[in-house]
Prior knowledge:
With about 375 residues, this protein is mainly beta. It contains one helix and 21 strands. It has one helix spanning about 20-25; strands at about 1-5, 15, 40-45, 50-55, 85, 95-100, 105-110, 125-130, 150-155, 160-165, 185-190, 205-210, 230-235, 240-245, 250, 255-260, 275-280, 290-295, 305-310, 320-325, 345. A five-stranded mixed β-sheet has the order 9-10-11-13-12, with no helix packed on it. Strands 14, 15, 16, 17 and 18 form a five-stranded antiparallel β-sheet that branches. The chain has a four-stranded antiparallel β-sheet with strand order 1-2-3-4, with no helix packed on it.
Amino acid sequence: PKVAFIKGHSNPVLIFGAGYDAAAEDIDGPPAVSTMGRGIFVVDAFTGDIVWKVTNNGDTTLCAAGTPPANCKMTYSMPADITLIDRKGNDGYIDRLYAVDMGGNIWRVDLEPTAGNTPDKWLLTHLAALGCNTGSCAAGTTPRKFFFGPDIVATPYYDAVLVGSGDREHPLLTHQSYTDANRFYMVKDSNIGNNGSDLSRTETSLKDVTPKDVSGNAICATTAAYDGTVNGYYFKLCAGEKVVNAPLTVAGWTYFGTNAPASTSSASCSANLGIAKGYRVRPLGGNSDSVIYDGGGLPPSAVAGLVEVDIDGDGDMEVSTFCIGCGGSPDCVGADCEAAIGGGKVQIDVSTKRNRSYWYIEGK
């Protein structure tokens, strides 16, 4: 769970998804019908009382406001962390949530809608259905799964919701999930105000910008770069490749990691941990780079921040940026560049040039 301060409740709260359904955990292929983990909870951090929740109630329509919201079509479990956003005023209070589930859906919760900020006014809406190409999965098919919460990049015109799919629990070559067609998505949430709406974006409403690698070779397909049109973009991962950690956006790039199983000889004595990759992608432009990590395995989620370092050894501490697990840069130099837990300095390529502006008061 994540701790947050919200305007509609006096105490700090814990916010989390309802969890992973065991009915899907041990099934390699089309999942059984979920009966657990289908919901979002907001709990008082001091008392443990439920402040607000939304769960599946057996209905087949989308959700409306209420405590809990009525008519919820939430049919998949939610093991991923909930993404918390302070979008309104940057005042330290969380006013919006984004949640994803094991059926490829993206949900939005507004904690300060126009009607008010108390829990009985909170609004749940459905942003996207990306489990299958058309948004509707046929019976017996395996939807794309979101194990990790999305990252959000705010713009003046829309909020970019960035998320990758992959059945992390079934990574092997022998698993049926090898045939799943996984993606990395950027979905536009055009309702930047206090109220969301049921946009129900699908893959068919996004642009395919499947990229090339650093050598110019196509990764599974070749398409044009994203031009900002339609409702966002996606790019395809290679056969058997799965997103296995949470995306992180820092200094103009979004970083995430993948794993794909690799075949080995039966005579081999070494462990086969698959092919691990680190990606970096321009969140609003879609163009990307990637590197292959040494040793394979499942890369952990990247972490970035600031640290004080005595660079010159003179005792004067300087603040420096860092990122651990931010692979994908072809400009990186050193052993850490090919390590899934390698650290490095964040490369900020935003122009530091500033233009002066003046004002004056003409007196008598």
